[in-house]
Amino acid sequence: MRWPIQLARRSDVRHCISKPAMSVTVPLGRRDLGDEPYRAIAYERAVVVVPAHNEVANLPRCLNALVTAAACFPAPTLTVVVLDDCDDESTRLAGRFGSDVHFIEVEARNVGAARAAGFVYSRTVCAVAASAQHRVWYATTDADSRVDADWLVRQTDSGADMVLGVVRVENWQQTPAGVVRRYLSRYRAKRKPDGHGHVHGANMGFRADKYWKEGGFAAIGSGEDVDLAQRFEQRSYRIHRDDGLSVETSARRVGRAPEGFAAYLRSFSRREGVG
Asked: Name one GO molecular function term (predicted).
């Protein structure tokens, strides 16, 4: 594992650690999370991790959207871009998105390991006492995705231990109409009793203390998001499946994870007899 391309300047690290922390208070109340009321949580910090392998073309849009989401979130937010075995020009983007967006390098070629490395790195930069981990919110998205401005606010407003959102495809122009229809029909039909039935690493968030208690993301090449969600379910943590929490993603047919979203889209093409 390699550590940062460009660690933030010393003044930037100080800024990350000591920036006055406003908090997001989740009110006492009830949602679709069961019969028991949830307790108020004052989030004092957020961390967003973005794994990337040769994503120089997509990262600027992704990061501009995350900078906006961080500006809308009333607590300090650190974004960690994990460049995983990149040989494109991604490293040249370091430093262009402000002092709260850090780039690090790893050589894993493994999306689970890359996501995990981002959260490990965040602990070395933003000092948070173990007793305060429950007031830190973690979120993750993908380099070919773009979050909405209220992404972090909506996640933390749920009062849940984990929030799972959905994705919307940015542009179907290169995809046959039959493939689009099959995909949308299947996607909308996948339901669970408590909401939609999807798990996307491009659109999920969770409490830091629960994440570390469950051992974090596993170093697996695909399905690391589903694996983490299943471990949260097994512990009966509160999981909020939010149909209205949507992230824009690409319809590319060649992705980075062997069995990720791009592979899922390709499966519909095969059924239609498309290449």
From this structure: glycosyltransferase activity
